[in-house]
Amino acid sequence: MFTQTPLVRRKQRNEIIAKWIFGAMAVAMVVPLLLIIFHLVSRAWPLLSWDFLVTNPVGGMRRGGVWSAFLGTIYLVVMSLCISAPIGVLAAVYLNEYARDSWFTRIINLAVVNLAGVPSIVHALFGLGAFVIFAGMGRSILAASLTLAIMTLPVIIASTKESLAAVPVSFREACWNVGASRWQTIRRIVLPNSISGILTGVILQVSRTAGETAPIMFTGAVFFKKIPEGDLFAYNLRDQCMALSMHLYTVTTQVTNAPEALPYAIAVILLATVLFANALSISLRVYLRSRKKW
Amino acid sequence: MTDAAPALSIETQDLSLWYGKFQALKNVSMGIKNGLITSLIGPSGCGKTTLLRCFNRVNERYGYVTTKGEIRILQKNIYDPDISLIELRKSVGMVFQRPNPLPLSIYENIVFGLRIHAEGKLGKGHTDEVVEKSLREVGLWDDLKDRLKGRATGLQLEQQQKLCIARLLPLKPEVILMDEPCSALDVEGTRAIEELMWELRGRYTILIVTHNMAQARRSSDESIFMLMGELIEHSRTEDLFLNPVDPRTAEYIEGRYG
Ligand SMILES: Nc1ncnc2c1ncn2[C@@H]1O[C@H](COP(=O)(O)OP(=O)(O)O)[C@@H](O)[C@H]1O
Ligand SMILES: [Mg+2]
């Protein structure tokens, strides 16, 4: 009675092997990330300082800091999300809550999925054609932000739809059955219970927007631009701007005799910006989840 | 015509319903008496839920549903063009198989309906009163009065189901539809809900779907037996269970269908 058969022993052995393999994979995910961060920071160390962040590059971009590029990236990220987040969220609410299943909504859904997979260089060319040339915006922060917005829009729609769909249908039924309209249902029940997921999806796009070079290269980013230091409103939306991703690209490929630490320091600033946004999103998510009532 | 309350709360005339090509209800004609508890029995898939969902017109949310025939609730045809779905659903409340309290506090669950229909802000005195009255009506007041701000989804299932009933009451419904309201509950919970139904009897017309025949027998005035989308028999509960007219009813009661 209750003794181990060979079959049970074999099962147990497999169980242990499986556990170790999966565990090793999980570790394998984290190790490279930590190594990258360590490598970047240690190489960048001699240059990292507050001054590096808040001074313009000088001396053919070999000395000074990254201020104009840093501020440019902030402008591009904030502007593009200000455009794509509201449109994306509203579109997703329509698709998930209002639209009936018809060929029309199916085409929209198909377009969303496919647009999310289009390479960024294609968005860049579209932005160049549509905003810079056709709409006559010229190369500007506005045109670059619109291009980035077009790039992030489908992803925001998809992630928002997913968050909305995660709210149980039974909640909606409960609302309809006391005579709530669709908008009342959305406003009082659906949105409050999906807002943390929606925000997370939007903020995750910060890293994409900050990291891409291609879409802004033709539509609004320049190699070099000097702006007043310490002025947060130094750029005009019709101006071109510098951006961290582009700056990194320039310094590594176009500038000779740059200090060895410079590209690493730029990368650290870029990475820190993105990680800061992600940390913000995580804490927001934790906070909102803690207020959730189910 | 007198102004007295109509004898029949719900009447259907040759009601048929199709899901696409599949006919789920076949020429159902019946009358549900005002203020009584009527139970709807029949094997799984015979159209009980479908019938229930006709009465507050939720079936229409599926684009592929077609309905024919007439439904009158309090002598008003609910397919008339001047019917407001919002008003209809206010007076025809529904309780589901799985309790589905909203992810709000207990208090807010109960005033949810009022807030939805109110034109401006509701005074706190008024809502406090409504909450107490509704909770007392379903017998939850003593248990819950100290944690009205607590989460409704954290309650026991039985309490959740009672709360779902209490949630309907502030809207002063005429009819309460219950779709197997006890199937997620244990014996105790089932008994509590049945007792509650008796408490509410007379003030509301209650139509309850159940596939628990003992429950139908214990807790309803009249019973309706359905089979494959058709209404087979409708009579007083004792009569239906003791002297069924149709042989198919007899077979079902004896337990020959699932
Ligand atoms: N939304 C739906 N779409 C298509 N068919 C459905 C739908 N709901 C129910 N049906 C079908 O209609 C019939 C009756 O279902 P239902 O009313 O749920 O039965 P019951 O509640 O008596 O078990 C079943 O055959 C079921 O498969
Ligand atoms: Mg059913």
Rounded average pLDDT of chain B: 90
Which structural class do you get from the secondary structure elements of chain A? mainly alpha
Radius of gyration of chain A: 24 Å
How much helix is in the residues of chain B? Answer: 25-40%
**DSSP strand tally of chain B:** 10
Number of helices of chain A: 11
CATH architecture of chain B: 3-Layer(aba) Sandwich
Topology, element by element:
The complex is a heterodimer of chains A (294) and B (258).
Chain A: H1 6-44, H2 50-54, E1 57-58, E2 63-64, H3 67-98, H4 103-116, H5 120-134, H6 141-165, H7 169-176, H8 182-211, H9 214-217, H10 244-253, H11 261-290
Antiparallel strand pairs in A: 1-2
Chain B: E1 8-19, E2 22-33, E3 37-41, H1 48-54, E4 65-73, E5 76-77, H2 85-91, E6 92-95, H3 106-117, H4 124-137, H5 141-144, H6 157-166, E7 175-179, H7 187-200, E8 205-209, H8 213-219, E9 222-227, E10 230-236, H9 237-242, H10 247-253
Parallel strand pairs in B: 3-8, 3-9, 6-7, 7-8
Antiparallel strand pairs in B: 1-2, 1-4, 4-5, 9-10
Helix pairs in contact in B: 6-7
What does this molecule look like?
The complex is a heterodimer of chains A (294) and B (258). Chain A has 294 residues and is mostly helical. Helix content of chain A is 72%, strand content 1%. Chain A folds into two domains: 1-44; 50-290, MetI-like fold (Orthogonal Bundle). Chain A has helices at 6-44, 50-54, 67-98, 103-116, 120-134, 141-165, 169-176, 182-211, 214-217, 244-253, 261-290, and strands at 57-58, 63-64. A two-stranded antiparallel sheet of chain A has the order 1-2. Chain A is globular, with a radius of gyration of 24 Å. Chain A starts with 5 loop residues before the first helix and ends with a helix. Chain B has one domain (8-253): Rossmann fold. In chain B, the strands form two sheets. Chain B has a six-stranded mixed β-sheet, with helices on both faces. In chain B, strands 2-1-4-5 form a four-stranded antiparallel β-sheet, covered by helices on one side. In chain B, helix 6 (157-166) packs parallel to helix 7 (187-200). The model of chain B has no long low-confidence stretch (mean pLDDT 90). The interface between A and B is medium-sized, with 22 and 32 residues. The complex binds adenosine-5'-diphosphate (ADP) and magnesium ion (MG). Residues 48-49, 179 of chain B line the site of magnesium ion.
